[in-house]
Amino acid sequence: MRGIMRTFLILFFVLILASPSFALFMTVPPKQDETKESPEPAETKPADVKPVNTKPAEEKTKPVKRIDTMLAVFDLEISDKVDKAIVRPLSESIRREIVMSGRYEVIDRGNMNKILGEQKFQLSGCASGECIVEAGQLLGVGKIVTGSIGLVGKTYYLALSVINVETGKIENSSEDKCKCEIDDLIDSSKRLVKRLLGEQVATPQTTAETPKPAETKQSQQPPSTPFSKGGYTDSSGIEMVYVKGGCYQMGESYNAHEVCLDDFYIGKYEVTQGQWKAIMGNNPSYFKDCGDNCPVEQVSWSDAQDFIRKFNNKSGKNYRLPTEAEWEYSARSGGKNEKYSGTSNESELADYAWYYKNSGNKTHPVGQKKPNGLGLYDMSGNVWEWVNDWYDSDYFKNSPKNNPTGPSSGKDRVLRGGSWFGDTGYLVATYRFRYDPAERGIGDSFFFDYFLGFRLVSPAR
Asked: DSSP E strands: which ranges in 329-424?
C-alpha cells in the first residue's frame, strides 16, 4: 500500500512540474526583478538629457570670443511722446561720438543685427539686465551702451548707461536734458556721451540763440567764385558741369597724398527722383512726397550701376559714378583747402548744406542751397553719395598719383558727403564712409534709412 502511495505522489509532482501553470508561476519572479531594475535606466535618462540641455547654452556663448575693448550701442528706448523718427539718428550720433573718442572699437549696427539675427535673438524690447548681457555674449563685446529718451512738457530727458557684459553691472551712466527743438537733440546726445566717458561738458546755451550769429555771417559772406568753365545738359535733363583737372592734396592730414586728375564732367545735382523714374520706371525713395526734383534715395551701389547701364544704353553716353578722388576734388571746389563743400566755416554750413540742424528730418529739392566754387550743389548734405571705389583704409599708401580708381576688390564701397540727418562731422569733404554695395538702407540696416543717393560723372569731350 505504501508503495502504491509513493508511486502516486511521484506521478503527481511530475505532472505539476510539467504543467503550464507552474511554468508561469516560475516566470513571475524574473518579471518582478525586471521592475526592480527598471529604475536604473530611469536614472540614466537624466544623465542623457543633461548634455542636450547644456548644448544650447554652450552654443550661445561660443559663437564669438568676448573682446573687452569692443562695445555695442543699442538703439535708444523712447517714451510715447517722442517722435520715433529721431531714434535712429540719435543712436547713430551716440555711436559715432564713442567711435571718435578712440576709447572703444564699436560694432556697427548692421553687423550687430546680422549676428543677433543669425542667433534668432530678438533685440526689440531687450531692456532687462539679463537680456542685455545675453546679447553682449552673442556679440562677443565687453560692454553694451543702452539709453532712453523721454519728453516732459517741452523738455527732453536723455540717459545712457554702460553695462559690463561679464558682470552684468552698470559701470557708468550719464543724463542730459534739453529744453530745445527736436533738431538740437544731436547736440544733447554729444554732451551725453562726453559725460559718459568722463569728459567735462560746458553748460549749453539756449539753442534758439545759436543760429542767429550764423545767419548774420552767412548774409555777409559773398558767394564763392565759380571755378567751372562750362558744361552741358543731357537730353534727359541731367546737367553736367565741366571740371578742369589738376593736382591736389587728397585726404585728411594723417593720410594726405598728392593726386592728379584729368578733366571730367560731374553732375551739377544729385540724381533726382524724376530722373530715376524716367529711366527705371519706379521710385524707391522714402520721401516720395518731396517731389520729382528731390534726390532719389534708398538705392544701393548696385542699383546705381543698373541705372547707369540703362541710362547709357538710352543716351549713348558713357556715364559712371565718380571715383573717390574725383568726388573729393569736386566737393572741394577743384581741390581747394575747404573743410565742407563751399566753405570752411561751420557757421556758414547751413547756407550750403541740408543737415540735421536745418533739414527738418527730411530731404529737400536739389539746388536750393548755395553752390560750391565749381557750381555744384548739395555735395555736403541732403543724401550720402555713392562713389565707384572699393573701400580700403590704407589705399592712400599705395594709391597711384594719376587718376586713381581705388582698390581692385573689397567688401564695401565708399560713400561721401553726409546727409540731411548728418552731424557736421559727416559733411566734411574728406570724410569717408563705407557700406555694403548691395544694401539700400532699408529696414534694420545700419544708419542709412532713406539716405543713400548718387550723382554722375562723364569723361571730358
From this structure: 384-390, 413-416
